[in-house]
Amino acid sequence: MEKPRVAIFDFAGCEGCQLQIINLEEEILVLLQLVDVVEWREGMSHQSSSYDIAIVEGSITRPEDAERLRSIRRQAKWLIALGSCATHGGVNKLRHLLDFDIAAEQVYGEAASQTHLQSEHVRAINEVVDVDSYVFGCPIDAREFAKVVKAIVFGKRPEIPEYPVCVECKLQGIICRYEYGEVCVGPLTRAGCDARCPSAGFRCFGCRGLLEDANVEAAREVMDRYGKTTDELEARMALFNTL
Amino acid sequence: MAKTIEVHHVTRVEGHGNIVVDLHDGEISQVEWQVPEAPRFFEAMVRGQRFDDMQSIVSRICGICSISHSLSAVKAIEAAMGIEVSEQTDKLRHLAHYSEQVQSHILHVGYLVAPDLLGAGSVVPLAQSHLEVVQKIIGLHRLANRWSDLVTGRTTHPITLQPGRLTKLPSESDLGQLRVQLQGAISQLTDLAQVLGTLLEKFPSFERDAEYVGLTDGQSYTFYDGEIGSSDVDTTVPVDRFESVVNEYVSSQSTAKWTRWHRDSYAVGALARYHLNGHFLFPLAASIAHSLKLELHQNNPYYNTVAQFVECAHLIEASLRLIDDLLTRGLKEERVAISPRAGEGAAAVEAPRGILFHRYAFGADGRCEAANMTIPTNQNHARIQRDMELLVPQVMDKSPDEIRLWLEMLVRAYDPCISCSTHFLNVEFK
Amino acid sequence: MSTVKMEESQLLEWVDKLIALQRVIGVQEKQDHFVYDTLRSASDLRLDHDVTYLPPVKFLFPQREQLIDFKLDEGYESRIESEPFVLLGVHPYDVVAISQMDAIYSTGHEDQHYMSRRRNATIIACDVETPSKNTFAGYMGTATVKEGFDVLLTRIESEYIAEAGSEKGEALLTLVSEGVTSATADHLARREEVWRNNVDKMKQQELKVDPRDWPALLQASYSDPIWEAQANLCFSCGGCNLVCGTCACFDVQDQLNWDLREGTRSRVCDACMVRGFMQVAGGHDFQSQRGMRYRHRFFRKGSYIPERFGFVACTGCGRCTSACVSDIANPVKLYNTLLERHPEVFAHRAEEPAPTQAQETKAPTSVFTLYPTKGWVSKKEGERRDIYLPELATLVRSNPITPTETFYQFSLDSGRALGHEPGQFVMISVMGYGEAPFSITSPPRDDDTFDMVIRKVGTVTTALANLQRGDKVGVRGPFGTAFPVYDELLHKDLVIVAGGLGIVPVRSVILYVLSHREDFGRLTIAYGMRTPSERLFVDDLRRFRREPGVTLLETVDRTEGRWTGSVGPVTTVLPEIGPVTSNTRAIVCGPPVMYRFVLSDLLAMGMPEDHIFLSLERRMKCGLGKCGHCQIHGLYACQDGPVLKYSQLVGLQEAL
Fold first, then answer.
1. How far is A78 from chain B (nearest CA, A)?
2. Higher model confidence: residue B64 or residue B423?
């Protein structure tokens, strides 16, 4: 079997997801027996225009980035969106809560009008091109990344959970954050992280994205029960799930 | 003969940076360090957010130095709201912070710079040619990751580091195990120091005078506490007045902002810390520094990599002491209830690549009203530009490939974290 | 069996001795809650806990466990745990929950993974000192317990009474320090007092419906809008399931190693409240709505399990109540509300004298005769095998018969004949991809081969489509009920109605009947397909048409090309099947939408309900009535089905 050629690209993001790939440590060397990594700016000098699998990190914020992404899509047989910025925009979309020109001016002052500072609406990768697989999370979980890559190489559709984080809390016996009076977005958020934040004593803030059938209405109603306001819920949902 | 060297998206750095050099008949018509990274506007985005959500947001500025961003954020929030933390929390935060320094330094020295020194395009072929070295690098990297995982709940984007407290304590037995692992890492570190010692000649010889800026407390090789010091002056500036140090301005070359203090540029990072605090190194680190010919007034920017390596040894020694201290006292669950209040505060920590500043103002409801962050890579941009301007005339006669390699290595030496250098602003604080 | 009395210090000394001997999992405090975890020292033990966050049964039926190691071409090996351990501090309601799980996992096909752990477990129970705020065990007959433990501890002021409940427990009690004496009659009397008090103490939530009445109340409430109304607040998070001491459902997943040749098959506790719990590979979800799933949970615990095992699958611990963020999981609230809404269920009892105070206090230990008296029945060693371990089979040949369906023939590597009856199914594993149920389309054979026709719709079927001749698969089965060609169908006139893929299992019947022609009467086959080109087994159909005494009626939904036959749903050709007599039996198999129309036509033609046999598709996962995914009301499609008589399904709204 010929090894699939893999290229890794990044757009607007913190590059923490690529770091998780490096954090596979020795397993990377094993991964490299399954695939040929032909381009990875952060990790290697070599660049290539011929690849089968494109792994794309980050959000699209500028026209030239959208164009580059489209050309990546044309090359790749299989495109993986890596991490929240790529899968649904993640924390970058908080910007949409602001008036853009004002935001730029707040950051850059009078210089905001300089052309290289112009930035458009934030888009997830699938808002620009078709995506074949998603690796959710901020940052991604290295083990899940490994699972997805293995599945693709093996010709199997990667199984990504479509149930709330609560499932993983309960599987591990992690005490519910609501019992500590915190507004947790776990009941609305796609699992797959092994309830990473609740297991470290912190609420879920939804980095893997809201579930397709997230019962937001129920969450609003439930706030009262815990003496919380829907504003607090909305604010927390907005962190990684602003549209 | 015309030589144009354009390196678009320098590889093996975090984020996107370009180098443009234009030489014409022995004349330099252009030498430029550009940062075209897409801007992300964090300072504007945190406005209106709750104080207890701030860490979750600003950690995302940078995947490589997320612990440093988190720590400077929670320290600034605590300064703004008058929150005191316990000694236990303070020590565990130090321990978390050190894990990130080691993780980042090993990544930089081992994965990003080592290929240059060993003549490879990436760490991948090194796994064939230098398997033993690569295994040691991976071993240290894994240790640093487990270490931050243990204290912060994750290797990247820490979870436990919240205002006033750690949301979860490591267990004493986990800390005990970490201690054993850190102790075991010392021999790997000294082995790698020997390897690095044989490669020193691969660093271009390029000396220049520069201003070095970093945290200093006059008694230790500090990463977390202290005031702002400069190699140009003997006095220090309190962190709360950091704006008078950084003097940010927007360069036409960059989406990131540049800084200047006593000169038109200054350097931050491991080499700067070493200039300011090098005589406070712990013994192992001091002996490695000596063996790697890292002089206290080393002025070759390429040696930043060596300084990072020396810091790894110091940080492991410092962490062993911290763990001993924590275990002697015993870990205790703390109950901390925080009620937000209006206020403004600033904080600084040393990120792996240099000093990092955060300032926030909060309303009485605990929502952020203004934010200002100045990150180390921005503080180095102007210095990188000056270094290039000084370096290019010295190497003009070389082939374009060689010039390109030296310039790329120069950029890499600063270990720029460009992705996090692109969202910073002037906010007027009264 | 001995009953001794210990000072607290003597108890701790004894526990430390146990810790030195084997792994002791005891109740400890963690972040303001109680959990079971490995005890390092007796001083960490908390026998005064109210309730643990997760039930102790999780150490017998872990939330995640590895079942099988596999090597793709070489074979599979079970992982059975056999390390002895002690569960210490188990409250009575959890002792009962464990005995219920024992019944579920040992009845019929014994689950080796569970039972091996169970045999190695020693249960040291303790009577409740502090009731939890959501408990209603006092109403469930589970506030105290007389059996199901190896040792029972009861605190009487500063002393503990320890009673051995088994030989295993008796042996442990021999480890107590010198100076420990037998409990006196006075101690035992005071223990009775504790038990009486505990029944009242464990009524923190007032349950107004006797659990023995739950099944009847549920039956009366099936169509009540309350299910949907409550479920509007449901996050489908499965929290109520996953903290439950009697929830036994699980899912199975394969993990591959980096070499892509080896891996493990694991099971994970599953939750019927989570979306997709009953979804089949084609995409159809038999419980797609929150309200359906919410109702299912209560029915499973309060009606289906009692029907099958004789006990209500709830022991009143209140964990689901605590775990539910929306506060809709509380059984007490739900049953009390149902009672208010359906007073008619108990109207006839109004004349019965109200229970006197004396009777009520007498009730505690005898309320529940329904609970299994013996946990599990030990089988002979030789009979134990891993019911989840597939046997190797080899792909003999495969050929596509339509653009989406492929014919497969497998042979069992052991050389044994599969031994199935027409209508049964097997579980086929493509290791690394998973396991799925498939009908057998070949008639019973003497050799080691069997045939299937499979449509490419999901992960496993896609993997099957990529197999080459000689590749290995795993096989478990045959499972389930069959069309009764050996008894009830003998000498009968048969009408076979098949739609779409429904032809696959009934082909097995047809071929059997054709090779035993003298045993059966007239055979009429009505077969409907979407289009002519999608018809399966065209060679067979040609042959059936020529067979004497066989009538083949074909129809397609949409015509194309040179089709001259009937057009319309399969009911279009039903009038042609001829007169239905008392000697006629019908076999119906097809997609869910087909049944309703075909059945009403057959009934209209005068066919009695118990003369109609049909085969139902569900999400069979274990094939053995353990995993819970194929439940249709009280029936398991994998055990009681897939072949069922229509008379068995009347009134079961989820069946068709």
1. 23
2. B64
